[in-house]
Write a structure and sequence with these properties.
Layout (H helix, E strand, L loop, with lengths): L5 E6 L10 H10 L2 E8 L4 H11 L3 E5 L11 H10 L5 E10 L7 H18 L3 E6 L2 H10 L7 E3 L6 H9 L2 E5 L9 H9 L5 E3 L21 H12 L3 H15 L4
Parallel strand pairs: 1-2, 2-3, 3-4, 4-5, 5-6, 6-7, 7-8
Helix pairs in contact: 8-9
Keywords: Hydrolase, Metal-binding
Protein name: TatD family hydrolase
InterPro entries: DNase_TatD-rel_CS, Metal_Hydrolase, TatD-like, TatD/YcfH-like
Length: about 260
């Protein structure tokens, strides 16, 4: 499926799952119409590989941050490292950051502290933030409000919350991003939320190699499949796929300061 103007706003092309065919995966994305990608570096291992990709390809940009699952391992010097990288011309956001109450790897108080520190850093360096939220809707919204995240805004990555949560995030200057799950037949809530999100605040993504859209569910995801997310969004919004692709690309450029 080839659609012009696609922007995969969240991908992990540096994942080991692409070690055997990364070049081909990137070529397939370009052939499918993906003009821009933001690759996410989220810990000590993936930040360097993300930066390497961003430096190698002019159409790949980087977000760097500390994932909530990894927050127990974050040291003060890591925050300084992220701040230093934010001056790099290819770094467009701090992320993915947030809270994850599903995987019991980092205590909640540690996750909260690391999340707050990174929001404060983002405000200092004036970068948007990319939010990871798993089973933590109330605390995410509360901390974003308390830390005045509206000042910088950003992306609610692969949004899985209610419309009420989405509305609070929209009020704080965030874009709402949807991935593969919105293509699933039983994904009633994400589809209802997507339908209500204003067109100028809508983003699409893959989160590849995870959350693969229908009809490839169960297999490895890749950036070219963002076209299927665009197709689902078009059906829900009553727009053409080309309209969705162009609008979400413009939104992504605006969000990440690429205009």
């Amino acid at each position: 499926m080839t659609i012009p103007f696609l922007f995969d706003t969240h991908t992990h092309l540096d994942s080991y799952k692409f070690d055997s065919d990364r070049e081909e995966v990137i070529e397939r994305a370009r052939a499918a119409g993906v003009q821009l990608m933001v690759n996410i570096g989220f810990d000590r291992e993936t930040i360097p590989t993300t930066m390497a990709l961003a430096e190698k390809y002019d159409f790949i940009y980087a977000a760097v941050g500390w994932h909530p699952v990894e927050s127990i391992h974050m040291k003060p010097e890591d925050l300084g490292w992220i701040e230093e990288l934010c001056s790099h011309k290819k770094v467009v956001a701090i992320g993915e950051i947030g809270l994850d109450y599903h995987w019991d790897t980092s205590p909640k108080d540690v996750q909260h502290r690391v999340f707050r520190e990174q929001i404060q850093l983002a405000r200092k360096v004036k970068k948007p933030i990319v939010i990871h939220n798993r089973d933590a809707h109330e605390d995410i919204v509360r901390i974003l409000k308390e830390e005045n995240a509206a000042e910088i805004g950003g992306v609610m990555h692969c949004f899985s919350g209610s419309w009420e949560t989405a509305k609070q995030c929209l009020d704080m200057n965030f874009y709402i991003s949807f991935g593969g799950p919105v293509t699933y037949k039983n994904a009633r809530v994400p589809k209802e939320v997507l339908e209500r999100v204003p067109m100028d605040r809508l983003l699409i993504e893959t989160d590849s190699p995870y959350l693969t859209p229908h009809p490839f569910r169960g297999k490895r995801n890749e950036s070219s499949y963002v076209a299927y997310v665009a197709e689902a969004a078009a059906e829900i919004k009553g727009k053409t796929v080309e309209e969705i692709a162009q609008i979400t690309t413009e939104n992504g450029k605006k969000c990440f300061g690429l205009q």
